[in-house]
């Protein structure tokens, strides 16, 4: 008796998210954060008591803030991040809501494979519909709940601390000639990681 013909074996289905693009995003994100943190100034230099004095005028205070921000940029951004983190940790529900919203953006839209449409109760949602739902959800969470006020208050507290330090810290002893442009550093991973994800996603789709 002739052997039955072999059954076709699938080489594997595309995962629900573009894993290559997602891994590239995480790698670029972590590398950029490590690079930025390596450029922070010593905290003892930031808190040197002998370098504090009252500004002569508002214009002098504004000039000090600009120069100190150019020098202590990474430290200031770290203080803002710490202020946000402390506020969110002290409000676990708001932290959970924001993490859920971020996960929805990443896994339902940014890195979701085009071959895996979102299906809920038998209805498939297009990319435009998913984007609209996510935008509306973000607006509701940020502007119509306590999460938005929590974020704004944490940012205002952090900015107040940064501005107070920048206004009273004398920048005469700081060397600013070797500073990098303001667009590089702590937040540059956003553009770089997004570009990497956009570049990898078509490659992933072409192998499907």
Account of the protein in words:
The longest helix is centred in the last third of the chain and has 23 residues, at 146-168. Strands 1-2 form a two-stranded antiparallel ribbon. It has eight helices and two strands; from the N terminus they run αααααββααα. The chain has helices spanning 19-37, 43-46, 58-71, 73-89, 92-110, 127-143, 146-168, 189-206, and strands spanning 118-120, 123-125. By secondary structure, it is mainly α. The protein starts with 18 loop residues before the first helix and ends with a helix. Helix 1 runs antiparallel to helix 8 (189-206), helix 4 runs antiparallel to helix 7 and helix 5 (92-110) packs antiparallel against helix 6.
- Low-pLDDT segments: 6-14, 178-191, 200-208
Proportion in helices: 55-70%
Shape: elongated
Query: What structural class do the secondary elements suggest?
Result: mainly alpha
Could you give a quick summary of the protein structure above?
This protein has 208 residues and is an all-alpha fold.
Question: What attributes characterize this protein structure?
Answer:
two-stranded antiparallel ribbon; 8 helices; 63% helix
Question: Topology of this structure?
Answer:
Layout: H1 19-37, H2 43-46, H3 58-71, H4 73-89, H5 92-110, E1 118-120, E2 123-125, H6 127-143, H7 146-168, H8 189-206
Antiparallel strand pairs: 1-2
Helix pairs in contact: 1-8, 3-7, 4-7, 5-6
């Amino acid at each position: 008796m002739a052997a039955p013909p072999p059954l076709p074996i699938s080489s594997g289905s595309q995962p629900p998210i573009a894993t290559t693009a997602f891994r590239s995003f995480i790698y670029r994100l972590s590398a950029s954060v490590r690079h930025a943190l390596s450029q922070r100034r010593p905290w003892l230099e930031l808190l040197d008591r002998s370098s504090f004095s009252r500004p002569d005028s508002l214009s002098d205070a504004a000039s000090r803030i600009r120069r100190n921000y150019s020098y202590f940029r990474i430290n200031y951004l770290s203080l803002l991040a710490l202020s946000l983190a402390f506020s969110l940790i002290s409000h676990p529900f708001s932290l959970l809501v924001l993490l859920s919203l971020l996960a929805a953006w990443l896994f339902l839209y940014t890195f979701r494979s085009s071959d895996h449409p979102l299906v809920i109760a038998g209805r498939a949602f297009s990319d435009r519909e998913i984007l609209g739902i996510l935008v509306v959800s973000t607006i509701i969470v940020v502007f119509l709940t306590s999460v938005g006020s929590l974020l704004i208050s944490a940012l205002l507290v952090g900015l107040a601390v940064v501005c107070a330090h920048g206004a009273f810290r004398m920048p005469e002893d700081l060397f600013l000639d070797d500073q990098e442009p303001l667009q590089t550093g702590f937040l540059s991973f956003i553009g770089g990681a997004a570009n990497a994800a956009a570049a990898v996603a078509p490659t992933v789709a072409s192998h499907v």
